[in-house]
Design a protein that fits this description.
single chain, Glutaredoxin, 160 residues, 5 helices, alpha/beta, 7 strands, two-stranded antiparallel ribbon, five-stranded mixed β-sheet
């Protein structure tokens, strides 16, 4: 019985390590499927071949609000290329989040659903917001936690 328990614990630890490594640079991003703000189903694995910026944020987060103009600039600069920006809101006040997105003309893909956002944030082990993940064309995480020019330059280099 002791051997079985030990085997179970070791297996669980290995699986936990595998999941934690997935959200690291160079790892495969955890796949997810969720409805975007317009009701369309979005599946991350369907975007392979594109550069994806996955952004976790909330309207109540001051640093997230500061980052909005930068995200607007990145989106406008790269939207005609193989680039997809996905913002995952961790807001509980969904109408306020939707209004914020509309008022700020944030015209990219948004997942504004408390349960879906929380599940995706858990998959990516998001500990703070804003949190960003840059996923390259090959479907690997190329960078994490970039902001400003560093984020823009990384995306530009992956789109070359």
């Amino acid at each position: 019985m002791k051997t079985i328990k030990s085997t179970i614990w070791i297996t669980a630890a290995i699986l936990g390590l595998a999941v934690s490594c997935q959200a690291q640079a160079g790892g495969e991003p955890p796949d997810f499927s969720a409805k975007d703000i317009s009701g369309q189903v979005l599946k991350l694995s369907d975007l392979k071949g594109k550069v994806v910026l996955l952004d976790f944020w909330a309207t109540w987060c001051p640093p997230c609000r500061v980052e909005v103009p930068n995200l607007l600039g990145i989106f406008r600069q790269f939207k005609s290329k193989d680039f997809v920006l996905i913002s995952v809101s961790l807001d509980r006040d969904l109408p306020a989040a939707r209004k914020f997105v509309k008022d700020k003309e944030m015209d990219w893909v948004h997942i504004i659903d408390w349960e879906a956002g929380r599940e995706i944030a858990t998959l990516y082990q998001v500990e703070f917001i804003p949190s960003t993940f840059v996923i390259g064309r090959q479907g690997k995480i190329e960078a994490r936690q970039l902001r400003g020019d560093e984020l823009k330059n990384k995306i530009a280099s992956l789109l070359k």
